[in-house]
Sequence to fold (777 residues):
Amino acid sequence: MLKRIFVSAATLAAVFLAAAGSRAETLGPVTDALGVVKIAKGQPIVIGGYASQSGGDTNQGIDELRGAEVAIKDAGGKVLDFPVKLIEEDAQCTAEAGQTAATKLAGNKQILAVLGPSCSSGARAGAPILWKLGVPSVGIGATAPALTAADRPEGFQGFLRVVPNDLKSAAFTADYVWDKLGLKSAATIHDGSPYTEQLVRAFEKDFIAKGGTVLASEAVSPTDTDLRPVLTRIATKKPALIFTPVFTSTIGFLMRQKDEVPGLSDTKVIGGEGVFSANVIEAVGPKIVGFNIVGPSTDLFSPRFPAFVKTFTADYGEAPIGGFSAYGYDAALLTMTAIKAVAQTDADGNLYVGRKALYDAMMASKDLPGLTGTLSCDAHGDCAAATYAIWEFTSDDTASFAPGTNPKRIYP
Amino acid sequence: MSEAMHAGREPGAFAEWRRRSTWVDHVLLAIRAGVAVLLLTGLAGGLTAGTYSLADFVSFAVFGLTMGSLYALIALGYTMVYGILRMINFAHGDVMMVGSFAGLFAAGGLNDLGLLRAAPLLALPLVLAAGMAAGAAVSLGIERVAYRPFLHVRSLAPLICAIGLSFVLQYTARGLFGTRNRAYPGFGWMEGTLDLFGLPVPIPQLVAFGAALVVLAGLLAVVRLSPLGKAMRAVAEDRDAAALVGIDVGRVIVATFAIGGAMAGVAGVLYAVVFKQITVFMGFSLGIKGFAAAILGGIGNLGGALLGGLVLGVAEALGPALVLEGFHIPAPYQLKDVIGYGMLVMILIFRPQGLLGERLASKRA
Fold:
C-alpha cells in the first residue's frame, strides 16, 4: 500500500514538474516558451563568450573573443541603447574545460546567448549545458560536422556557428588534391579530437568519391612527440599526400621528423586551419617553407576586413592571426542583430528578451553582411560565409607571419 | 589426507600448489595465461604482417632506448625522493620543464655571444649545465616549501603540496614564457644522421642516449662511492638511526632534491635536443611517464629507475608495431600508452615491488 502511494505521489510530482518545465513565461510585454530575460533600465545586455584562453590554442581563442569585442565596439558598445557586456570564460580546447566554462556561464541567468567555443570538443560538452537552459551558442571555431548534422541530438539544437562546417573544408581539400595537384593516393592522420577525426573522415569520403585511394588512416595522441613509427607505417604504403589537420605541437613534430623516415621526403603534407598562426613557424622550424595548409580565405572575406584588421591592431597592439577574430566578430554581430530584432521594452524602459524568440531570430539570420561575408543560417545552424583556400608558408622567420605573404594563398 | 599421501608418495608441486592456492591465485594465473596468449598472438601477427622491415624495428628500438634513457633520468628524481622521504614529488615533471626552458635561454644567450657557432661542442655542456642548475634550484624550492615543513608529520600534505606546486610551476612558466611552442636551437654538429651498422640514426638521439647514460653512471658512482652517497643510503635505510650516528639528515634531503632536480634538468634539455620544440605544459605527461618508469623498475631502486625507463621507452616504441599490429588494430600508435601502462599494471599485479624491487625494503625485510 505504502509503495503504491509513493509511486502515485512520484508520478504526480513528475507530471507537475514536466508541466512546469514546459510552461511559457511572461515578463513585461513578452511571453516566451523558454523563458524571458528582463534587463532593467541602465543594466547591460549580457553575452557570454568561451574560447581557448590558455593551453596550446590560446592565440586562436584570444583572437576570437577580441574579434567579438571589436564587433561590440563597432556597434557603439550598445544594442537598443543598452550597453553590451561580454563575459569571457576559458574553454581551452578540451571537453572538460568547455564543460566547466559552459557551466559557469549557465550560472548567470542574465546571459542571453554565448559566443564560442574555439574547439569542437568544447562545443560537444558545453553547447548542451547552455541549451538546456535555453541559451543558444554561436560556434567561432568549432567545425566538426556532427555539431550541426541533421540528426544531431536535442542538446545541440541551440548551437549555431559562423565558422564553416568541416564538410566544406574536406570537400575543398579533396578538390584541390584531386583536381589541382592530380594526386591519386593519400594518407590521413588525426589526433582523436572531434575536429581532426571528423575532418579527415570527411576528406577520405570525398577523396574516395573522386576516385582517390586512402592508403592509411592513422591516429596519434595530442601529447605524442615521437611520430616516426606512424610515419614509417605510412611510408610503407607510399601515399602521394598526407592530410593531417592536427594542431601546432603535433605538426611541429611531424614536419621535423618526416624527412628522417625513408620514403617520405617527396610526400606532400597538407595541414588544417588549426595551425594558421605564427607559432607553427617556430614549432616546425626551417621545414615550414613550402608547407601547405587549408584555411579560411581571409583575403576573400568582406571588403571591411582590412579596416577591421587596422582597428584590431590599434586596439590590441598586434595584428590578428588568420581569420579567427573575424569569426568572433561575426558571432557577436549575428547575436546582437537577433537581440535587436526580438527585444521589447516596457513603459519604464526595461528590456525583455524571450529566449525562444532570440534563438528563432538567430536561426533565421539571412543575408546578414558579416565580416567574413554574407551570413545566412540553414535549418541546422550552419551560418558561415567564409570560403576556403590553400595557403603556403614562404619563410621560417616567425616575424614574417602575415596572411597573404607568409603564408601566401596559392589556391584558388 | 590426499590420495598421494595414502599411497605413501609425496604430493607433486602442482598438487601442492592446488592444495594451497585460493580462487584469487586461479584468477591471477588465468590473467597471466591470457596476457601471455595475447602477447604471443600479437607478436606472431606483428612479425608475420611484414609491414615493417628489420631496419624499421631496429630504428624503433634505438629511439625507444633514447626515450627510455630520458624517462630514466626523470624516474631517478622520483625514486631518490621516495627512497629518502617515502613520498612522491609530483612536481618533478615540471622541474624538467623548467630545466628545458633554462637550457633554451642559455642557448639563446650563447647564440647572442656567438659561442653556439664558434664552439658548438662546448655549447651543449653549457646548456646542460644551465638546465641542471635551474632544475636543482627549483627542486630545492620544492623541498623547502612542500617537504621540509612536513618532515616530521605523517600526512599526505607534502603530496598535495607537490601537486599544487606542479600547477604553480606550469602557470608561472605560462605567464613568463607564454603558451606557444618554443623552438630549440640546433647545435650544428648534431644535425644529420650517423650510420650505425647500415642503419641511419639521428645524431641527437645518440647524443641524448649517450649523455643520459654518462649522467646516470656519474650519479650511480656518487651514490655508491662518495660519502654523500653513503649518507643518502643511510638516511634511506633509517632516518632516525642515521641522525643518531651524526649524519645531517636535513642536508642529505636537500642534496637528494638538488641531485634529482639536476637529473630532471638534464632530461629536459636532452628531450628538447631530440624533439626541438618545448612548451610550458610538457612536464605533466613526461613526469607521469617518469613516475611509471620508477614504479616499473622498483621505486627506491636507482638501477630499477634506469631499467624501468629503458623498458618503458622500448615497449612504447616497439609495442604498437610488434603487438597491436598483429591484431590488425587500425591506427595502433594512438594506443601507444596502452602498451606502457598495461605493462605497468601487469607489473603491479604480479610483482608489486617492480622489476628489480626496492632493495632497501627487501633489506629491511
Remarks:
- The longest helix of chain A spans residues 2-22.
- The interface with chain B takes residues 54-56, 58-59, 192, 217-221, 223-226, 228-230, 232-233, 236, 248-249, 252-253, 256, 260, 279, 282-283, 285 of chain A (CB under 8 Å).
- The two ends of chain A are 76 Å apart (CA to CA).
- The CA atoms of residues 119 and 142 of chain A lie 4 Å apart.
